[in-house]
Amino acid sequence: MTALPRGTTAPQAQPGPVAGLLDNHGRRIDYLRLAITDRCNLRCRYCRPEEGVPFIPHPEILRFEELERLVRIFTTLGISKVRVTGGEPFSRRGCLDFLRRLKRIDRLQSLHVTTNGVKTARYLDELKEIGVAGINLSLDTLDPKRFWQITRRDYLAAVLETLYGALARNIPLKVNSVVLQDTSDQEILSLATLAEKHPITLRFIERMPFSGMTRVEEIINGDLSSRLQRIFPTITEEIQTITPTTARIFSIPGFKGKLGLIQGYSRLFCQRCNKVRITPAGMLKTCLYDDGALDLREFVRSGKTACEIGKEISKCINNRFVNGLAAEKACRREEEPSMSLIGG
Ligand code: SAM
User: Fold this and answer.
1) N or C: where does the chain have the smaller number of CB atoms within 10 Å of the terminal CB?
2) Which pLDDT value is given to residue 19?
3) Nearest-atom index, ligand 1, CA of 136
4) 174 phi, psi to nearest 5 deg
């Protein structure tokens, strides 16, 4: 990977639950996204081709014990929030038990899950009992025909069962909707009714240049912020001072929930980025757009101690790209991988 000038060296990471990790640009890193599988039961056209992508062979996927060990190490470094994602996390057998195990880690303050909701309804009681702090549900349309066109599967009813089941159980819910080239204003209005009627944050996501598709994101994304303002003239952006977040949040008079905008393509939020990722194959990514900063699988499988692994992780965090544009420039690939190989 080509090295870029990455700014000044920041203070070393302090062990402990709240001291936290600071990167070389002074950003506090306290959030880990953990992709536990590359498998998925949908075939979203912006995420992977119809025929799917070749699966990562099982032995190359981190085992649950390895993942748990890594989470423990990360929490001693200062990570306090973990999101389990995929692929589709509930496609991996044992996901629920794994969540239970993570929840027992003392320093972990909040555990979240991102899911497409296809199989999730049946686990909601257990997710509530485990104390999962929130579910992010991916849902790009409320129209069954369009759901089929986007996902190449007929599971809208199952996803809605998850959505309403989570609401009924008061599990905090965010809905993530990728805005595609043919997403109409009407579609945006229709999705927004979820936030109007329920305490949901409905976040519109810019399509990003993943999954090997041609680079048409600029045309698709346009200025989504102006588009939202045009569609919802009474929208007001909330000023967020405390929690770092990748989403811009908007309130609308009369709405029980809120709208959000995640500009992962424009990369306007990098200066607030507080997260790192582990891919299903155990690669640490300190930026969504990088090529991988550290092969953690190799580390956990070669008998390294927690202290040694922790030091290497801290080094990577002290060497982060300033933003996703710099990362992408340094790591330009022939073809962009599917998000399911990274962790969406
Ligand atoms: N299966 C889980 C889910 O559906 O929430 C975990 C994430 S999974 C990789 C798919 C999600 O990743 C999509 O619903 C979308 O939110 C995000 N995603 C995948 N490809 C994307 C792209 N090209 N642009 C923007 N978001 C994308």
Assistant:
1) N
2) 58
3) 5
4) -120, 140
